[in-house]
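Input record, target 12 of the design panel.
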């Protein structure tokens, strides 16, 4: 049997392993399984990464949204191996995954080697600090549930401290304005930074309602969004950026554009123009790069962001048995001068593409070429709104949408991911369960 290994069970990898397992890993209508499918991930559970800003703001409890890889494997005809990819031997078609310790640091799983016929690398991306002094040490990135939870706990602690300050010291900013008692600085006004800033405004309001009555959510919790480019959401059309900026200003978010951050020190973010922005908490959301391990994979070529350079078949440049998808792959986007963008939408399309492509591979037919279809981008602005542009043949161009409808479209992206993992019937049940659960949970996770 053909041996498929998918490394990375994220937005793209888990969808691919699930579909390959369902189609080729199980006996189907009397037909024997055609392949073994193994998914490798460093974590035991999956969470859809675009939910992390909601986890950081406390509006999403990650434990209600996590999916156990081992259970998904059992239901969908694949095997799961926990461990971090550390080495690739292309000649032997073998990967090595690292040992996994238990919570006390004692060895739980040993280092293991797994052999493949076809390997798909889907290990996503990590935060890029661009070498800015102090950024890695003094700010929090949003790559993992642990980081998002750390931010949430620190934010709540800062608000509780401010509530109980008996003699609060009033500080003033460079313009002489009174500063909020808790100040959050978000570096990078791409989708993640913008979404987090809107979500945090909601968190401040809810915390004030949940017992922190002395905290004025509009005034005492400040959110500064810092962007080096001339406008927020630089990767999206200008009118989306303008509409979003207006909404953020209404929410009381302070927007600083054209400000390149040169240092993050404890309690302060400094910019090239000489500004020192007070920051009790700093989030770094200014860019991504591929995980370092990809540059050490038996000579596979990477670009300057460390992403694996792939052909339009998603095969790596020098090894036809190794494919890459999602954030960790650099794939040309024909008709533009850019690569396919690092988005959940792209990872989802590439997973669907590779699922079909793997059928061709098993049948000995030529592999198709991937074309990214941009359906637009949506940015969530808290519970009741979103803004973005819809694109595509249906509407013949790009259309600005905002409000509840945009929020509904935004949420449907996640629902599509759930449908890809569990089917449409279970997706509907999951949605209902989610709404029911919300009736007995606080609107912000407090502990
Ligand atoms: C806060 C936030 C908000 C976002 N919002 C949006 C949005 O609204 N819309 C959108 O389209 N995109 C959004 N994105 C981007 C989107 O999350 C990514 O583009 C998408 O998750 C990429 O999918 P992927 O499968 O390539 O990688 P990921 O989903 O990141 O999955 C990578 C997987 O690989 C595993 N892994 C990593 N390294 C190793 C290793 N060495 N060995 C084994 N396993 C490993 C990880 O544990 C993870 O499970 C957002 C991202 C963030 C952080």
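The sequence produced for target 12 reads:
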């Amino acid at each position: 049997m053909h041996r498929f290994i998918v490394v990375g069970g994220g937005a793209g990898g888990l969808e691919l392993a699930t579909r390959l397992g369902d189609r080729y890993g199980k006996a189907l209508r009397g037909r024997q399984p055609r392949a073994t499918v193994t998914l490798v991930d460093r974590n035991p559970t999956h969470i859809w990464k675009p939910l992390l800003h909601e986890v950081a703001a406390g509006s999403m409890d990650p434990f209600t949204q996590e999916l156990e890889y081992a259970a998904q494997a059992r239901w969908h005809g694949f095997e799961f191996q926990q461990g971090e990819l550390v080495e690739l031997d292309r000649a032997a078609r073998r990967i090595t995954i690292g040992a996994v310790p238990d919570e006390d640091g004692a060895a739980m799983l040993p280092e293991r080697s797994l052999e493949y016929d076809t390997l798909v690398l889907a290990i996503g991306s990590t935060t890029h600090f661009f070498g800015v002094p102090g950024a890695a040490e003094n700010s929090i990135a949003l790559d993992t549930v642990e980081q998002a939870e750390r931010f949430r706990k620190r934010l709540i602690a800062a608000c509780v401290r401010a509530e109980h300050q008996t003699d609060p010291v009033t500080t003033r900013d460079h313009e002489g304005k009174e500063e909020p008692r808790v100040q959050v600085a978000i570096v990078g006004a791409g989708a993640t930074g913008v979404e987090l800033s809107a979500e945090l405004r909601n968190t401040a309001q809810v915390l004030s309602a949940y017992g922190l009555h002395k905290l004025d959510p509009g005034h005492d919790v400040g959110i500064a969004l810092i962007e080096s480019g001339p406008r927020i959401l630089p990767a999206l059309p200008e009118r989306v950026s303008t509409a979003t900026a207006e909404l953020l200003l209404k929410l009381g978010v302070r927007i600083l554009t054209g400000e390149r951050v040169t240092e993050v020190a404890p309690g302060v973010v400094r910019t090239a123009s000489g500004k020192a922005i007070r920051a009790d908490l700093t989030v770094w959301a200014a860019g991504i790069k591929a995980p370092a391990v990809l540059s050490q994979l038996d000579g596979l070529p990477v670009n300057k962001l460390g992403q694996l350079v792939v052909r339009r078949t998603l095969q790596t440049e020098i090894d036809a048995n190794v494919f890459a998808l999602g954030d960790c792959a650099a794939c040309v986007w024909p008709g533009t001068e850019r690569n396919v963008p690092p988005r959940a939408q792209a990872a989802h399309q590439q997973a669907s593409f590779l699922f079909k492509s793997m059928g061709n591979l098993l049948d000995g037919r030529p592999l198709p070429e991937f074309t990214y279809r941009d359906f637009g981008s949506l940015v969530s602005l808290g519970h009741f709104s979103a803004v973005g542009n819809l694109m595509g043949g249906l509407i013949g161009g790009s259309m600005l949408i905002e409000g509840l409808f945009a929020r509904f479209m935004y949420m449907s992206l996640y629902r599509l991911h759930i449908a890809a993992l569990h089917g449409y019937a279970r997706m509907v049940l999951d949605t209902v369960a989610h709404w029911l659960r919300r009736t007995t949970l606080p609107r912000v996770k407090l502990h």
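Residues 145-164 form the longest helix (20 residues).
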